[in-house]
Amino acid sequence: MKWFLMLLIFISGIYYLVNQHRREAARKEMVQLAKKGQIKALEEAPLPVKTEKAYVMKFSLQTIKTLRALTEDANEKVRYASAELLWQLQDESAPAVIKNMLENETEASVKKNLIDMLSKDKSKLSLALLSEALKDYDKETRLRAVEAIGGFSNKDGILALSRALQDYDEEVRLKALEAVNRVRRDIEAHKEQQMNEIKNKPLFSIE
Q1: 126-167: per-residue pLDDT in tens?
Q2: C-alpha–C-alpha distance, residues 88 and 126, integer Å
Q3: pLDDT at 204 exceeding the cut of 60
Q4: Residue 40 burial (CB < 10 Å; 0-12/13-18/19+)?
Q5: What SS3 class is residue 45?
Q6: Between 105 and 12, where is the model more confident?
Q7: What is the rounded radius of gyration, in angstroms, for the C-alpha atoms of the chain?
Q8: What is the DSSP secondary structure assignment for residue 48, as one 8-state letter?
Q9: Domain at 61-196: CATH code
Q10: DSSP assignment of 97-143, as one string?
Q11: Distance between CA 64 and CA 73 in Å, rounded?
């Protein structure tokens, strides 16, 4: 009888350990799946279509029309200042106005200022407009646009630089390669930081 009880206790212990191992394996699998889901979510962070401001002051239609007209003023500083204000006001005509200015503006300083303005706004809209500057006849303008696009830590930025990688000027091509590499490094560094945060973050927390 004594040996039977000992055998029963032994079998019960084995059963408990096996179940404990299974529960631990299931828990680890659940944690891994949860973290994989978090990592997958990190990979799905596209650029916003455009930057949305919490509050934008509304100007009268007459004032907006005046600003639009001033983008064709004889003075280059007036042209840029009016375009910048339209952009800040998120006027519906601003993208078309800026695109037209990038295509037809004769003063390189105005195009440079427009590119710098757009580079501060990390959105698909600003990236599309910066891509237009890559078509410019002026090499310095194209170089400026490449540098600006290199500040977009997003795969869309790499795609936008494709045109510059095929530019006829070797300096632009080299600058584009450097910009692509910069975007790659920024993306990888950001992903690594986020993954380390997920790795060190407990799956469950007790409040």
Answers
A1: 999 999 999 999 999 999 999 999 999 899 999 999 999 999
A2: 12
A3: no
A4: exposed
A5: coil
A6: 105
A7: 28
A8: P
A9: 1.25.10.10
A10: HHHHHHHH---HHHHHHHHHHHHTS-SHHHHHHHHHHTT-S-HHHHH
A11: 15
